[in-house]
Design goal:
4 strands, alpha+beta, globular, 76 residues
Length: 76
């Protein structure tokens, strides 16, 4: 799983991995730290934007909190 760049060093995101219609995100803290979001739960537009932000290394955690916080398909 690639590390998240976190260009501003202020994110709760540590790493991410994605496919065509899903993204898995590892958060820095919490009991369950690995969350999977998919197009069926969160919507394709959100998944595509999350992938773009993940690759850019900035803004992903904020985007999740504002737009898809509870729309994950699984967590562990």
């Amino acid at each position: 799983m690639p590390r998240y760049k976190d260009t501003n060093q202020d994110s709760g995101v540590v790493a991410y991995e994605y496919g065509q219609d899903w993204i898995e995100i590892e958060f820095r803290s919490g009991r369950e730290r690995l969350y999977r979001y998919d197009a069926a739960q969160a919507g394709d537009e959100h998944i595509q934007e999350m992938k773009r932000l993940a690759d850019a290394g900035d803004g992903l955690n904020s985007y999740i909190m504002r737009n898809v916080r509870d729309k994950f398909s699984s967590k562990r």
